Amino acid sequence: MANAIIGKVFPVFVSCVTFLSLNGCASTQRPGSAITAAETSYLIVRDRTGQLTDEQVRKLADKADNALREVLKFWSEDPKIDELGKIRLELERPLGQGKYYGAVFKSELEGSNKRRIVYVFGVDKEPQMMVHKLTHAIFFHKDKLIRNMMGIPMEVLFANRLSFPMCGFNNAAWVLAFRQLKLNIPLTDLGPEHESWGMTMEGKFPTLTSRTTQHIAYAETGSFGFYLLDTYGVEKVKNFYRLSLQKKRPWKEIFGMTLRDLETNWVRSLESIQQKEEGVSELRRIFRIRPDQACFDAQDLAIKTRKGK
User: Fold this and answer.
1) For residue 165, is the peptide bond before it cis, meaning its omega torsion is within 30 degrees of 0?
2) Domain that holds residue 108
């Protein structure tokens, strides 16, 4: 399962990190403790858990900065710091009684200025979904399909493939497993808002309404994003993003066909590698037995397999 298991190492860059001591308490931080913060070329990183040492914050800040540098290089994109300021990275405790690791991007008003903020939940081990959401901070979009098909591949390439929705395996393997279980969701059914993705907005952050739907939708979108990049190239996908800011989902204008036709070609490409894609049978079994816990079970399997090599 060498191709399916996470083993990505961040490229090494030198980042100049400045430490700050901010008085006050965050909601997820121990009462009376100070917020430890670090500043890099692109980021202002704050530990709101009150649990990390200066060295741990520094290492995480460097890692995030290096990964974002790779994302910007991949897309040949500007970080928009002059226009929007540095991205804030808020390090929080895991959600759901310490079980759920992930990240959320939000654009929030501070006074009269908009700030890009990525909340990372769970930093006592390798962060999950952090680079996916940092990509959203560069390519902000109201359409969930578009921002996810650009963000999920960046998590795979430059960060932690144990993150959702990969959970240690290729998105393609998950999609093939879902299709064999007849659980696939047509891409045309995935709207721009949270509701068709098994999610809804409650308060500040989105919440789950169906973990099964969410996993299928995210894995499909990640695989489809890779298909577009491999088939049409980075520049064409980037052109699609630019035009989509002015016009709703301009598939035909950029790729020469509808989303339905693009999906047909993507599925054909998956079927052509079905016999070679590792982990499909294991993921099919995992999802059939415990769909709501499938990501956790897949992560455990990926880690055990990796240790056994």
Assistant:
1) yes
2) 14-140
Q: Are residues 129 and 45 in the same domain?
A: yes
- The packing angle between helices 54-75 and 234-244, to 10°, is 90
More confident residue, 120 or 203: 120
Backbone angles phi, psi at 206, to 5 degrees: -70, 150
**Mean pLDDT, residues 122-151 taken together:** 96
- Kindly provide the b/e burial profile for residues 29-61, where b requires at least 16 CB atoms within 10 angstroms of the residue's own CB: beeeeebbbbbbebbbbbbbbbbbeeeebbebb
Cα–Cα distance for residue pair 51/56, rounded to 1 Å: 10
Helix, strand, coil tally for the chain in percent (to 5): 50, 15, 35
178 and 132, same structural domain?
Answer: no
Angle, CA of 191, 194 and 196, to the nearest 5° = 50
Closest CA to 129 of 153, 103, 147: 103
CA atoms within 13 A on the CB side of 8: 20
Query: Please, where are the H alpha helices in the chain?
Result: 54-75, 81-84, 95-98, 130-138, 144-158, 171-180, 211-232, 234-244, 251-255, 259-272, 280-289, 294-307
192-208: pLDDT as tens digits:
999 999 999 888 888 99
One domain, residues 90 and 217:
no
Give which of 96, 292, 298 is closest to 212, Cα–Cα.
292
Residues 122 and 231 in one domain: no
**Can you spell out the DSSP letters for 176-187?**
HHHHHTT----G
Asked whether residue 13 carries a pLDDT value surpassing 90, the answer given is no
Strand partners, 201: 206
Q: Is the pTM of this model over 0.70?
A: yes
Answer whether 165's CB lies under 8 Å from 234's CB.
Answer: no
**99 and 173 assigned to the same domain:** no
Distance (Å, rounded) from C-alpha 90 to C-alpha 25? 13
